[in-house]
Amino acid sequence: MWNNFELHEVGIPEKLERCKLIMTTRSEKVCNQMACQHKIKVKPLSKGEAWTLFMEKLGRDVALSPEVEGIAEAVARECAGLPLGIITVAGSLMGEDDLHEWSNTLKELSESKFRDMDEKVFKLLRCSYDRLGDLALQQCLLYCALFPEDGHIGREELIGYLIDEGIIKGMRSWKDAFDKGHAMLNRLEYVCLLEGDKFNYGGGRFIKMHDLIRDMAIQILPENSQVMVKAGVQLKVLPDAEEWTENLTRVSLMQNHIEEIPSSHSPRCPNLSTLFLNDNDWLGFIADSFFKQLHELKVLDLSCTSIKNLPDSVSDLVNLTALLIKYCKNLRHVPSLKKLRELKRLDLSLTTLEKMPEGMECLSKLRYLRMNGCGEKEFPSRILQKLSQLQVFVLEEPFIDGRCAPISVKVEGVVSLRNLETLECYFEGFSDFVEYLRSRDGIQSLSTYKILVGMVDENYWADIDNFPSKTVGLGNLSINEDGDFQVKFLNGIQGLVCQFIDARSLCDVLSLENATELELINIYDCDIMESLVSSSWLCSAPLPLPSYNGMFSGLKELYCGGCNSMKKLFPLVLLPNLVNLERILVRDCEKMGEIIGTTDEESSSSNSITEVILPKLRTLELFMLPELKSICSAKLICNSLEVITVMGCKKLKRMPICLPLLENGQPSPPHSLRRMRIKPKKWWNTVVEWEHPNAKDVLRPFVKFR
């Protein structure tokens, strides 16, 4: 089925006793529209299943020689678990015992040239492609074929390319363009032309392309333009000169082992618009002659290579719209960018340039800029003021001797960027940051920001890529010098990192009533801080009974360490709000007596809280808290707990966590529990008690003493 329809229109009663209706479709959307009660995604065959089917179609009584059998297994693997492909290939080889014929079939399959596959399998797959009915979607699918076979394709990387190429167009906002890109990829997943990929790297999302879908795409690509795709095929040298034809438009040589591009290579490709040389880790030299005749080049990616100098001829690529040279850790020199006036995206992240490239102030069409300091201490405001179209501005923070040593920005440069949507930067002075917050647009106009003010240790800011999309870091600052500071953090902040600041509580930093979206709190080495929420604030702003949409209701992670004046972390009255809390880590707070503490008013109240459910809490870690006597006076129900760590908390006598009870009334470990780390062993054996007297016995298999 390609589309949904009303069952009664084709004579099928909607309510038919003792009857089941089974339908097949390539579109998950159709399943949803037809209100299917059970959806079964048909996955590719496993390696064993594929081999069994292959041999069945080849003939049950066939005995293959050892040489042919090895090739036959490789042939079956090339079909990537697709039954139709396996049946087609096995049928074409039925009765064949010539080793050369088998070897040739394997070669044709690996190069997407197998005729029977084209006539039978690709014709059916082509139907799904043709029925997309959207040119941009079709172009998006074909673009995925430029990546290596079986490769993990990063969604963000791919969408960036689609924007560069104009496949995603008509979007004035960078965020809107990315939203459009994700929607396109979702649709291709729904119709099973792409697959979601569980590959996990850097918190990003990935997709992958079935081998036969990719083979089909590679066959379709030449219908629109001439391409060369040799991605991830272990090339050590550049393809021969005769392969660089004049009608080439796109070349993908990513993820190979090319070591150099000598001066003998100067391809004449007047129509080449896209060149991928990224992820050639060993590529250390590119001759200046290589780019001399590539005048129409629009997208150039040299990321993750070992080049030391970008050839001067790149300066003459006046049609370039995207120049990507990220993760080039040997790069020292980039020539003048003055002539590249069409450039819209420039990525120099994680490079080690010795100085700022010349001519950056001429890039008036630039929408995306990501780079580090290039040896400068301050990013020139005169350059920023010329980049009026900039929507994404990311200045990375390198770390020197364990301390963050970023390039700073001045407020006059940043406030001139009226179209800015994403900002990652460093304000050296607290006054600059406050002025930016007070500016006409300021932080409210941004959809994403990660801003560091002052200096923090590497451990607390290096993981910036995994921080929430709206995060502020404050380090080595005197907050109380500006008494009006806290009102400047308006709605929407999601992450807060503080180290060495003189705030007595978060009330000095945040307007707590507006902290409903806060997901992450990291507080370190704040020796004056006494609690996250001050008692005086609670008295002046009494809370209603549990409000899941209220203060801290979005909080997922809470970290606190080295705060030596802090006696309690969090007030009990706010605990019911923490329905999304997933992790608590507290360490090295020498005066910490309670994690969740009660106020005097709560202690004397007849309505005091006696039990709290934290449904999403997965990790509770307490380290080196010598004065800790209580985690919480109320009972805690935490049935999602995976990890419990208690080390160096010798005065802690009660664990308030209630374990699930079996039908006979005996406790049972949470089904999610994986491990408990305890130190010292004597504390576990003789000091601490749980809510149920048998709790230690049932938890003992999970305990590891340190």
What is the CA–CA distance across the termini?
59 Å
Biggest sheet, open or closed, and with what strands and sense? 19 strands, parallel
Please indicate the percent range of residues in DSSP E strands (runs of 2 or more): 15-25%
Poorly predicted residue ranges: none
Mean pLDDT: 87
Percent of residues in helical segments?
Answer: 10-25%
Structural class assignment? alpha/beta
Tell me, what's the shape?
Answer: globular
How many helices? The count is: 18
Number of strands: 34
| Gyration radius, in Å | 31 Å
Account of the protein in words:
This protein is of the alpha/beta class and 706 residues long. The protein is 23% helix and 18% strand. It is built from 18 helices and 34 strands. The strands form 7 sheets. The chain has a 19-stranded parallel β-sheet, sandwiched between helices. Strands 1-3-2 form a 3-stranded antiparallel β-sheet. It has a 3-stranded parallel β-sheet with strand order 22-24-27, with no helix packed on it. α15 links the parallel β20 (520-524) and β21 (557-561). α7 (135-144) packs across α9 (174-190) and α8 (155-164) crosses α9. The radius of gyration is 31 Å and the shape is globular. The protein starts with 27 loop residues before the first helix and ends with a strand. The mean pLDDT is 87.
